[in-house]
């Protein structure tokens, strides 16, 4: 929705936001990942030597990074002829010290997956078991299959765990370790599953087939290749499934299983494909080359270039970093970093060759296992990229489920929005917008919290905020309601109703009698509205602006929310909190250049980027996990679908082709989320976050 410029309200100089069903998250200052300062990119931080001294046994598992910075990796400790044949899962602190270790019954080549809240770690072992551990290393449960497990698990958004076994069975387990369903494959599988937003699961097997299953375990289709499939698929936002085969080819299939294109490398491919922010597909081959292909399967470059001496065979999957560079291990006993144009940035030595695929975490730290039985950590000057499928198993936690993509039939709705800001004036003024659709009405609780923030340690709160609500029709803004002090209403019964709504909504921040916080509780019919907080007494300060859906007519919904503000740097970027009730497909936009048609062109954010986080609550507090991001909307593999959704929504502000605005189409389960808008390269200006229910 396009927010009216009138009335204008204050600019933001400090913003952190969030909300929760049982009380909002006042501050999410930790959302911005910051790379280690004053370090050399690729320099060694530390290496940890596992306890094995046997000739056999190595580290093939790829590490996974938990949201708290813990690094998890499995090892082969010893061999069948040694005194220690059991594999160990290590949990290492960011400084390389051991947090804990867990001994399985045999080798662990499977890469662990870490749940979004960081509380569960899941992996498979050569002993045929799937293990689930707590974040402190205690076993929650194990599930026995009929064969060894080398592939990695995928974690569904509904808590399901998917993993294959050498017994030729593909397993879906519930979060408690019980069997949900199983499906027979034509042969064993060393491959790892990948999950699309619609719940489709893709896994390859040694019968040369890629299998597609739906969330109930029904087989949708198979695709035949000329060799075994031992890696993982990557799923694009447009539904394209990318995977490689030991026949030496990289394949791109439509979501229905038909071939879009294939590209033949010079030898078998063990590695898995990854996708850059501009849609580039990266793959390493045992022919000793790294390939970069366009979305259409056309070669952009290879490293080393054609005609140059090839590297030793590559088994490691590349991780694409936020700056577009990629890192991967090689059989030349080194960690390799390439620029996005295929030129060499740096190499750094390892003690032996690396089958393991590196993980890049949000701080830029790079972790990889090696055949010398050591775990390496390297400094990085660029953090993880949270694009469509930017590293092995998609993200640092190796969940292997992508939120990118539109799925029809979602029954959920937007139930809350919050924005915390320090208001100012001008084109970067704080304006929250919301849209109601349907033939009935929704009752919305709107709040501007100032003094109430003091109990959360906010010192510079707005002492006396006033809340004004405007109805927007065309270019006209008509004030339809206002409140200064929440318990001083024109209709005194509203005070009781507001308190009751706070209780029924489970809000942790309840306004106290006599406070100067403001609130309105109103039934809204279909239309566009804006909410504007301002200081009554001229004393500015931090204000938390909130909108909660308190029920209403069936078939009528809060269909869109937005927030416009001055976007600064550091803690002054724009962050909006969002609550979803039920599964939703959303169009999320980070608007900058497109605002030039409504605001002073020189005042707008020239190059915005958006990042989406999921919010979980655990006993020790909240966990913010980045799950998706976009910088230039036209680079998304589903850019045409984004344009189609803009048209379907009847938006007046449609993105121009080639603009630097950002957008993503995502499908998300019920929960709490934050959307972060900032300027690329530290740029600033007026920007807007918009969230629409996609029809």
Provide a concise account of the structure shown.
This protein is mainly beta and about 700 residues long. Strands 33, 34, 35, 36, 37, 38, 39, 40, 41, 42, 43, 44, 45 and 46 form a 14-stranded antiparallel beta sheet that branches.
Largest sheet, described in full? 14 strands, antiparallel
Query: Low-confidence segments, ≥5 residues, pLDDT <50?
Result: 1-36
The rounded distance between the terminal residues' Cα atoms is 15 Å
Number of strands: 46
Number of helices: 2
Q: Residue-averaged pLDDT, rounded?
A: 91
Helix share bin: under 10%
What gyration radius follows from the Cα positions, in whole Å? Answer: 26 Å
Report strand %: 35-45%
Alpha-beta content class: mainly beta
Shape designation: globular
Based on the model shown, name its key terms.
single chain; 695 residues; mainly beta; 14-stranded antiparallel sheet; four-stranded antiparallel sheet; 2 helices; 41% strand; globular; disordered N terminus
Describe this structure in words.
There is one protein chain. The protein has 2 helices and 46 strands.
Architecture blueprint of SSEs:
Layout: E1 44-49, E2 64-65, E3 71-75, E4 88-92, E5 98-103, E6 113-114, E7 120-124, E8 129-134, E9 139-144, E10 154-155, E11 161-164, E12 169-173, E13 179-184, E14 194-195, E15 201-204, E16 209-213, E17 219-224, E18 234-235, E19 241-244, E20 249-253, E21 259-264, E22 274-275, E23 281-284, E24 290-293, E25 299-303, E26 319-320, E27 326-329, E28 334-338, E29 344-349, E30 359-360, E31 366-369, E32 374-378, E33 413-421, E34 431-449, E35 465-473, E36 476-483, H1 493-504, E37 518-535, E38 543-552, E39 557-567, E40 574-581, E41 584-591, E42 608-618, E43 621-630, H2 639-648, E44 662-668, E45 671-679, E46 685-693
Antiparallel strand pairs: 1-32, 2-3, 3-4, 4-5, 6-7, 7-8, 8-9, 10-11, 11-12, 12-13, 14-15, 15-16, 16-17, 18-19, 19-20, 20-21, 22-23, 23-24, 24-25, 26-27, 27-28, 28-29, 30-31, 31-32, 33-38, 33-40, 34-37, 34-38, 34-39, 35-36, 35-37, 39-46, 40-45, 41-44, 41-46, 42-43, 42-45
